[in-house]
Amino acid sequence: MGHEQSIVIGAMKGGSAKTASTYNLAYSLAEQGKRFLAIDFDPQSNLTTCFGVEKTGEVPVTIGHLMISVLEEEDLPEKTRFIWEREGVDFIPAPMMLSAVDAKLRLEMGTGKILSTILDVVKDDYDYVLIDTCQSLGALTINALSVADDVIVTGNPQLLAMMGLQDFLKTVTKIQNRINNKLQGAGILLTICDARTILSKTIVEEVQETFKGQLTVFENKIPNTVKVGESIYYSQPLIEYAP
Ligand SMILES: Nc1ncnc2c1ncn2[C@@H]1O[C@H](COP(=O)(O)OP(=O)(O)OP(=O)(O)O)[C@@H](O)[C@H]1O
Ligand SMILES: [Mg+2]
Question: Please, which pLDDT band fits residue 3 given cuts at 50, 70 and 90?
Fold first, then answer.
């Protein structure tokens, strides 16, 4: 992956570690000297919480506000008002009202690329922009995929958790064909893997077999470990909490 990349972390299933992956990837790449912007694009504001923001409902300028500004043809505020920094990683927080933005995007015409207006203002400052999406394939996620260069699909190798994978990839193909032909499937990141269970091993093999020649399944898998939950509780990236 080259310079000025926008990467979306997505999946159709909740709890497949999209947020944990976005958060930790941000710090791992920042440690390698990359300039990083993470965008919380999920109404649940989980990524914002990971960064240690306690009252996500009280953040004055969020990605939701920026989306509304663009929708209303208003000027965007100064970057310093919406870009936050936590130990070398910049991020834009999300509020609860982001779900209202999703509804608004669906009501108005031509809203598929609203997020790109915001990215145009900030992306030159960064090597990577990472967007953490929500589990539903609503207008927000479509917006995220419409501006992205790459999408990393997270998958938790439990039978039911893997079932939305094909549907999600079908949507990625539709977006590639209809809205954003530079979008690439970077690969499938298997998360919360239990090396000890036969089911987990079987499903990992199945996924590798299914996507052979079609989409990379990253060889590095993320193990199931309590350290992830603990590190989030303490708002610390894993490279710090449990290197
Ligand atoms: N490698 C891991 N091992 C154990 N638990 C993990 C791991 N990664 C994430 N978790 C836990 O799994 C839960 C879901 O993770 P996370 O919030 O990152 O998923 P998500 O895909 O962003 O979910 P959502 O769709 O709700 O946004 C969290 O409680 C998190 O602490
Ligand atoms: Mg999440």
Answer: low
